Amino acid sequence: MTQLLLLIVALLVLGHVPPGRTEFKRCWKGQGTCRTYCTKQESFIHLCPDASLCCLSYMFRPSRPPMPDNE
């Protein structure tokens, strides 16, 4: 009986432990990564829901739309 009680307590405690890594949260349609800081190969786009930075690789960075010609 005490082993069962110990097992239940251990499972309850482990269930409340927050995850160790949050670097794998995705943003910007799955192209970016939510991080505390961006690497040299990444650019900051916007804030993630948890107030971390949405870092997008320069390879996936959206290009600006072309400027219209004023004729």
From TrEMBL:
Residues 26-55 form the Beta-defensin domain. The keyword Signal applies. GO terms for biological process: canonical NF-kappaB signal transduction; cellular response to peptidoglycan; defense response to bacterium; innate immune response; positive regulation of chemokine (C-C motif) ligand 5 production; positive regulation of monocyte chemotaxis. It is found in: Secreted. InterPro entries: Beta_defensin_dom (IPR025933). The keyword ATP-binding does not apply. Pfam families: Defensin_beta_2 (PF13841). Keywords: Antibiotic, Antimicrobial, Defensin, Disulfide bond, Secreted, Signal. Its main location: secreted. GO terms for cellular component: extracellular region. Residues 1-22 form the signal peptide. It comes from the Eukaryota. Belongs to the beta-defensin family. Has antibacterial activity. PANTHER family: BETA-DEFENSIN 124. This is Beta-defensin.
